[in-house]
Amino acid sequence: MDKKTEDLIIESVIRQLMETQAQSAENNFRAGPESNSRDSGSSSEPNTLEPMDVIGVENPHNLEALKVMRKTSPARIFMGRCGARQKTASYLNYMADHAAAIDAVLMDVSEQFIADNDLFKVKTVVKDKDEYLMRPDLGRKLSQESKDEILQKGEKGKQVQIIVVDGLSSTSIEANVADAMPALIQGLGTYGITVGRPFFIKYGRVAIMDEVAPLLDCDVVVEFIGERPGLITAESMSAYMAYRPDHNTNESNRTVVSNIHRNGTPPTEAGAHLATLVKKMIDNKASGIKLAALP
Amino acid sequence: MATQSPQILQSVGIDIGTSTTQLVFSRLTLKNIAPGSLVPRFAITDKDVYYKSEIHTTPIDTRNRLDIDKIFDLIQAEFDGAGISPNDVDTGAVIITGETARKENARSISARVAKFSGKFVVATAGGKLEAIIAGKGSGAADLSRREFSIVANADIGGGTSNIGVFKNGKAIDSCCVNVGGRMLQIDKASSRITDISEPMRLVLSDLNLELRKGDRISLDVLRRICQRMSAVILECLGMIDPSALATQLLVTAPLRLNYKTDSFMMSGGVADHVYSPRPNMTLEEATQYNDMGPLLGNELANLCRTEKIPLVKPLETIRATVIGAGAQTVDVSGSTILVDEKLLPFKDIPVAIPFVDGIPMDEATIARQVAQSITSFYESDALEKIAIGLLGEQHFSFTDIQVLARGLLKGLEPLVRKTLPLIIVLESDVGKVLGQTMRALDSQLNIVCLDQLVVAEGDYIDIGKPLAGGTVVPVVIKSLVFETKQVE
């Protein structure tokens, strides 16, 4: 075989290989169904990923058993493999979920959301996202303008103040608050508990409630805050609550209900449950471990 | 809350069968199994059977019916023996099994037993629940969960065999057939027949045998009868093609058998002899209990061997039903619910299912379908308590919940007018928010709104008083779905 023929063969083999690769990559993207059962981090997420709730193991000994076990955990199990490595679809899902998590942290809660939910917006002393991530202490202090605005637009002396805080996932705030907050307000209403006008705090940490309560002289603060996103979901929200929090409050005084999202505790049901918890706090003038220790 | 200590429920199981009556006491542990920061989730985490009664012969009166007074003396003696007062009992079940003839007075017995023992005791004389309870007590349900397989359990008693089929721990099918070890009673001293039950006459005519009370029976004839009855059990289990006799003996509809059973278990009094058959059994051994139980077990074991049926040993044989009744009947609802405690307990509430394919998110449609589903149950002037079952795991926005609440209130207007309670049983975890939303619409309503429960059309539901500081209620769902020929 001369050099020229050899080159030709190599060239054609490489071309073929590249074509097949491109094709299979395309197929991988096309394979997924239109409706994706996973959380959508944002509307711009490609909807052509393969669903993750399928059994990827080839020729399983007991498929029924795998299906039952698959339902017990949202973790990446029974994804199948190719040799010693994960399949392309698993990897793409991983990359997409990672991207959604990063988006959840870095994006801002939209003005539209704040308007739709009848909130007004205030801010901590944090300047931008970078400072927010690097200086947790600053996320616990309200700026002077914000304090003034809260006193002006908020309501003093109500029993409960609801605050919405971006925390580490703006995505989760946009996904859950519209369902959880009205359920909570309705529940508190059936108990005859008064609620001040809710507002949104940008660049906030959990302990920001310690500044809010003394300012508005309320009994209980319910703080909806975005949880640090993971690869299972970027939409998980927590509700932190405390009875008369102030600068002496420590973490054991806070009660938390976490994992509020559509595949965890449904946001509407969480809101109804929070109403009962808040009533218990007001009745017993306690929160955190003191409340948990009550019979 | 999260740190709440577990609650112990005192449970009683009473099984009044054709041949034997038994009783067990157990302690059920109710515990929050969710991690601290999550919404609580209560479950029964431990079942400790700590007292098992003697196996008593069921008292029968001269007319061959259950002797209620003697049965109560016996139950009282066992309560005394265990040192337990009926007031201490939180939950449990009374199961009255056996052939129809002896069930004539079963109803009066259930009422009396329920009054006798505790706050939330279920009484039943129906085939399906018994079959499921026996399969839970024998360990068949657990085996199917552990091995992710389909397990059938046949509980063979004196007058009936209850068959329950389980997949991944859940009952998927059941039937009840008149095959039992005491359908022919024989005096062991004289080998003379002392009693022939009605279903036994069908077996005899199938075999062209003419036997009368007082006849002396031979081992050969007894063996032929037992072989035929063993075949009927395997026919009902779908292991042999069904015969006309099997159809005649079935008390309920047969198993659907649209699945493949992986393994089989036998429980009940006869089962001991299935798992330890005796070769060359004599007539004296066969009739040692004045019936044919041991020989039926022996012949069933032989037939299973010939038919190569994969038999698995149960945890309990003769006690399977009573242990199931004492430790496995009660379930708990989801932990975020809304109940008016003063209304509870409820017993035998029929369930209506208004929506088959998910809930339409339109107030008028919801109202219309809900109204329809309840009118099919009662004439409007004779309205009674009824539960609305809402199936499916669905995501509801707050707006959806409001639409649903308004639709339900409109559809259930006849109940509201008669100040009957609104009983809603949801599969999705939104019981509390739906209850609160209905209450916000009308603060005078009596509401019991439960979630994380699956019910079906034709079920009956019992709901007990709240446990664990009001967070959950105990429930028993009595499914009658598969019972089309049930006689009571």
TrEMBL record, chain A:
User: What pathway does the UniProt record associate with this protein?
Assistant: Amine and polyamine degradation; ethanolamine degradation
Gene3D superfamilies associated with the record: Ethanolamine ammonia-lyase light chain (EutC) (3.40.50.11240), Ethanolamine ammonia-lyase light chain (EutC), N-terminal domain (1.10.30.40)
Could you tell me which residues belong to the region Disordered?
A: 21-53
Q: Give the EC number(s) listed in the UniProt record.
A: 4.3.1.7
Which positions in this protein are listed as binding adenosylcob(III)alamin?
Answer: 206, 227
Q: Does the keyword Lyase apply?
A: yes
Primary location group: other
Instruction: Give the top-rank taxon of the lineage listed in the UniProt record for this protein.
Output: Bacteria
Record-linked InterPro entries: EutC, EutC_C, EutC_N
Q: How is the cofactor bound?
A: Binds between the large and small subunits.
Signal peptide annotation: none
For activity, the cofactor(s) needed are: adenosylcob(III)alamin
Q: Does the keyword Nucleotide-binding apply?
A: no
Q: Report which reactions are catalysed by this protein.
A: ethanolamine = acetaldehyde + NH4(+)
Extract the GO molecular function terms from the UniProt entry: ethanolamine ammonia-lyase activity
Localization recorded for this chain is: Bacterial microcompartment
EC class of the enzyme, as a word = lyase
- What function does this protein fulfil? Catalyzes the deamination of various vicinal amino-alcohols to oxo compounds. Allows this organism to utilize ethanolamine as the sole source of nitrogen and carbon in the presence of external vitamin B12.
Which PANTHER family would you find in this protein's record?
Answer: ETHANOLAMINE AMMONIA-LYASE LIGHT CHAIN (PTHR39330), ETHANOLAMINE AMMONIA-LYASE SMALL SUBUNIT (PTHR39330:SF1)
Q: Which proteins does it associate with, and in what oligomeric form?
A: The basic unit is a heterodimer which dimerizes to form tetramers. The heterotetramers trimerize; 6 large subunits form a core ring with 6 small subunits projecting outwards.
**Family named by the database record:** Belongs to the EutC family.
What's the protein name?
Ethanolamine ammonia-lyase small subunit
What species does this protein belong to?
A: Marinobacter aromaticivorans
TrEMBL record, chain B:
**Stored Pfam families:** EutA
* Domain of life of the native organism: Bacteria
Please name the SUPFAM superfamilies in this protein's record: Actin-like ATPase domain
What is the name attached to this protein's record?
Ethanolamine ammonia-lyase reactivating factor EutA
Q: Name its species.
A: Marinobacter aromaticivorans
Q: What is the lineage of its organism?
A: Bacteria, Pseudomonadati, Pseudomonadota, Gammaproteobacteria, Pseudomonadales
